[in-house]
TrEMBL record:
Source taxon at top rank: Eukaryota
Stretches with biased composition (Acidic residues): 187-202
UniProt KW keywords: mRNA processing, mRNA splicing, Nucleus, Spliceosome
InterPro entries: Slu7_dom, Splicing_factor_SLU7
Region called Disordered, residue ranges: 22-42, 180-208, 485-506
Compositionally biased intervals (Basic and acidic residues): 485-499
Gene Ontology molecular-function annotations: pre-mRNA 3'-splice site binding
Identification of the protein by name: Pre-mRNA-splicing factor SLU7
GO cellular component: spliceosomal complex
Main location as per UniProt: nucleus
Subunit architecture: Associated with the spliceosome.
Cited function: Involved in pre-mRNA splicing.
Length: 534
């Protein structure tokens, strides 16, 4: 809040001022106006809006936050280059001895030294230059385009246009020359006249579109504004091709970054890969030299973490050499492992002929099956083996965990235990568990069969907050008088909080007399006699 000056305020005035500021911040009260009649933002903090005491501000204002010290000598203008102010007809005393201008001396003259200066010949007196002297402000000193004549840029445009026209003309001549050579070699006497005319024609449209002929050419720009030399592609794509962001117009499809012109994900993942020509920029990262560079970088990081003195950026040749040696050693170890396995188990892909029984699946052994396909006679059925340990019994159990199920719990079949690490108790444990269950059922049945009735408690006649007063309500006058005294004491405590005690026992049981006392003592704002109560 913008304040004019700091003056003493009472507690009530200070409270009103705070309420007014809160109302202005909430938009309930109009904003404060400054000296010029402009509204002051109520959310501006006080340390910014309060004016210093030495300004003696009589009204609220924010002028002390604005720049009030300004030097009129500062300017952003620039020298008027080449301007002449006066042309003399004869030499003047104190002028330049070479050209005759009064604005400089002979040592500072920029003209060609004459054989006989203007001082002696009194001819061809040069006009006086316009000399200006002014101080630049902060922005004027640092403005690199201050004084730049925009009309001179037309020369740069003309140079570029002339260069582009010459280049286009040269490319057209080269294209015509190639077409003539091609037509001269492919001419045949048996060809029809129409075919000869078609071959002699030159497609002017293709020749004029010389920019697309070298769309993949990389040009170097040396000493750019960003620093260093950069390579840029003239045309990133052929204009006839569909842009990446038009392949799939779904909003939730692959994200296209317009700044880098990249789309990393596949815009059409459900399309046949043989039909689509673009699968996202990530496809290029998983193929070619990009994948090799990634493997080299990962190998350098892993080797450095394991204690090798290797760094990809500091010594790239060393990193690449170590990576090559690593791949050679890895291939040797793989071949040694393969030879060991082949030597131990044999090679099924070798050139040796397999036995006829294995090749055709036939043998002389007789095997008898039943209707369900199970082997009855001739070959023992081999049970499938698992990679986990089987038939291992712990804690004196004769069955495995999970062989018994009851009441949504797994357990052991031998002792009906549902705790996995429990000790087996055998049939005695089963009998004890059944006895416990029978006893529990008997106790439950006995409790249900008992005719014990609950103790009847005296119901208190309570009133509910917010309910209407029933018509048949009968109140006890003595209890009502006590309730009125309690209500008076409660209101006294509300007026003076110093009488409130530390330990207060609240009773939330409200009787009809308490409710009637509250209604009698309650102040009705619509009552015209409310100011005469109490």
């Amino acid at each position: 809040m913008a304040t004019a000056s700091v003056s003493f305020k009472s507690r009530e005035d200070h409270r009103k001022q705070l309420e007014l500021e809160e109302a202005r911040k909430a938009g309930l009260a109009p904003a404060e106006l400054d000296e010029d009649g402009k509204e002051i933002n109520p959310h501006i903090p006080q340390y910014m809006s309060s004016a210093p005491w030495y300004l003696n501000a009589q009204r609220p204002s924010l002028k002390h936050q604005r720049k009030w010290k300004s030097d009129p000598n500062y300017t952003k203008s620039w020298y008027d280059r080449g301007a002449k102010i006066y042309q003399a007809e004869k030499y003047r005393k104190g002028a330049c001895e070479n050209c005759g201008a009064m604005t400089h001396d002979k040592k500072s003259c920029m003209e060609r030294p004459r054989k006989n200066g203007a001082k002696f010949t009194n001819m061809h007196i040069a006009p006086d230059e316009k000399v200006e002297s002014f101080e630049l402000d902060y922005d004027g000193k640092r403005d690199r385009w201050n004084g730049y004549d925009t009309s001179t840029y037309s020369r740069v445009i003309e140079q570029y246009e002339a260069r582009e026209e010459a280049r286009r003309k040269y490319l057209k001549e080269q294209q015509l020359k190639k077409l003539e050579e091609k037509n001269g070699k492919n001419e045949e006497e048996e060809a029809s006249s129409e075919e000869e005319e078609d071959e002699d024609k030159v497609d002017e449209a293709k020749v004029d579109e010389s920019k697309q002929m070298d769309f993949a050419k990389v040009e170097k720009r040396v000493r750019t504004t960003g620093g260093g030399s950069t390579g840029t592609v003239r045309n990133l794509r052929i204009r006839e091709d569909t842009a990446k962001y038009l392949l799939n117009l779904d909003v939730n499809s692959a994200y296209y970054d317009p700044k880098t012109r990249s789309m990393r994900e596949d815009p059409m993942p459900d399309m046949d890969p043989n039909e689509k020509f673009y699968s996202g920029d990530n496809q290029n990262r998983l193929s070619g030299q990009a994948l090799e560079f990634k493997q080299l970088t990962v190998h350098s990081h892993e080797a450095f973490e394991k204690g090798q003195d290797i760094h990809m950026q500091a010594a790239p040749s060393q990193a690449e050499l170590l990576h090559r040696n690593y791949k050679i050693i890895k291939e040797k170890l793989k071949s040694q492992t393969k030879d060991t396995i082949v030597e131990k188990y044999g090679n099924a892909a070798s050139d040796e002929a397999l036995p006829r029984e294995l090749l055709l699946g036939q043998s002389e052994r007789e095997i008898e099956y039943d209707r369900t396909g199970r082997i009855i006679k001739g070959q023992d059925m081999s049970l499938p083996k698992s990679k986990y340990e089987e038939d291992i019994f712990i804690n004196n159990h004769t069955s495995v965990w999970g062989s018994w199920w009851k009441d949504h719990q797994w357990g052991y079949k031998c002792c009906h235990q549902t705790v996995r690490n429990s000790y087996c108790t055998g049939s005695a444990g089963i009998e004890a568990a059944e006895a416990v269950n029978d006893l529990m059922r008997a106790n439950i049945a006995r409790k249900e069969a008992s005719d014990d009735k609950p103790v009847q408690q005296e119901e208190k006649r309570l009133a509910t907050w917010g309910t209407e007063v029933p018509e048949d309500l009968v109140l006890d006058k003595k209890l009502l008088a006590d309730a009125l005294k309690k209500e008076d004491e409660r209101k006294k405590e509300e007026r003076d909080e110093r009488k409130r005690k530390y330990n207060i026992n609240w009773n939330d049981e409200v009787t009809a007399e308490d409710m009637e006392a509250y209604r009698m003592k309650k102040i009705h704002h619509d009552d015209p006699m409310k100011d005469f109560l109490n």
